[in-house]
Specification:
With 172 residues, the chain is mostly helical. It has seven helices and no strands. Helices cover 87% and strands 0% of the residues. The longest helix has 38 residues.
Length: 172
């Protein structure tokens, strides 16, 4: 029975390691996706930024207000569209800035405070790979130890509970 638990512990540890080494790659793919969305939003705004520079001293807010004030419903709706693109651009710019501030911020953003559509896109298109750098090895070992320790603790508690119950039943 002890050998079986040893193999179970080893299997859980290795499973945890394999899961853990994926964490840095997920964060890397999230960052690349975030950057590509940001660059795309920059391209989408390029002409409007030129227009804002030419007529409103570079103020996108004034350009949007000008479009929205127009009596022409097409221009008014165009102002709403520009505002949506500009808002998305600001959201992505802030997110990419925080992501680039350091490893802790990158991991926190990718898992705890992501931009939902970017995270969902990465989850949907995630490709499993192993990049053996310090982060991957660290997360792999920590998750392997945690998972195997957790399961082993649960097994010990379950065995102790069964033994106690068995003694209780035999005593009655």
């Amino acid at each position: 029975m002890a050998t079986l638990f040893s193999y179970l512990r080893l299997t859980l540890f290795l499973g945890g390691v394999l899961i853990g080494v994926q964490v840095p790659m997920f964060v890397d793919q999230y960052g690349k996706s975030l950057e590509s969305h940001f660059l795309e939003s920059e391209r989408s705004l390029h002409e409007f930024k030129d227009e804002a520079q030419k007529h409103f001293g570079g103020s996108m807010e004034k350009l949007i207000a000008h479009y929205k004030k127009s009596g022409d419903p097409v221009f008014h709706d165009g102002g709403k569209s520009i505002q949506a693109i500009y808002g998305r651009n600001l959201e992505l710019k802030e997110a990419i800035g925080l992501f680039r501030k350091g490893s802790w911020n990158a991991y926190t953003q990718a898992f705890l405070a992501p931009i939902p559509d970017v995270q969902n896109e990465v989850l949907k298109n995630y490709t499993y790979s192993v990049k053996l750098d310090f982060d991957a090895i660290f997360f792999g070992l920590v998750s392997g130890l945690f998972l195997s320790g957790l399961i082993e603790s649960i097994c010990h508690v379950a065995i102790a509970a069964v033994s106690s119950l068995k003694r209780l039943l035999l005593a009655s």
